[in-house]
Amino acid sequence: MISTDSISVGEVVAEAEFRLTRDSLVRYAGASGDFNPIHYRDDVAQSVGLPGVLAHGMLTMGIAVQPVIDWVGDPAKIVDYQVRFTRPVPVDAAEGATVNVVAKVGTIDIEAGIARIDLTVTFGGETVLGKAQVRVSLD
Fold first, then answer.
1. 125 CB burial (10 A radius; 0-12, 13-18, 19+)
2. 12-20 and 114-123 as β-strands: parallel, antiparallel, unpaired?
3. What is the tens place of the pLDDT at every residue in 55-83?
4. Which residues contact 97 (CB under 8 A, 6 or more apart)?
5. pTM beyond 0.90
6. What is the reported pLDDT for 83?
7. Which of 52, 81, 123, 135 has its CA 20 to 30 A from that of 66?
8. With contact defined as beta carbons under 8 Å apart, do 29 and 91 qualify?
9. Cα 119 from Cα 101, distance rounded (Å)
10. Superfamily assignment of 4-20+56-137 in CATH?
11. Could you tell me the residue ranges of all domains in the chain?
């Protein structure tokens, strides 16, 4: 069992790499109901000034928190999760896209039994989610 005593500020508690494909986007669109064509048609995405098809922002946000859920072992222990969308994730038709996540302990509130986990979420070496923070109940 993870507790506030078993972790320290600055400690990396989880890392993961997620590969997204155009198939991933179609599946997410079906599950979420978000059928905006910028998520599956290059011509539409380019017509509005985008480099091509983009991953759904909420898909990126969802995969980014998964390593923390896996680490803590229970999704009900997530008490708050916030991000700022800072850069889109283009998903190439042939190459796809790889999103990297590093989860590091930012602060620990011993009295409340809560740790803030800071996420670094990148694509192609650039941050795609800013101020990505997950508050986790540990006790």
1. exposed
2. unpaired
3. 999 999 999 999 999 999 999 999 999 99
4. 19, 20, 55, 89, 90, 91, 123
5. yes
6. 98
7. 52
8. no
9. 7
10. Hotdog Thioesterase (3.10.129.10)
11. 4-20+56-137
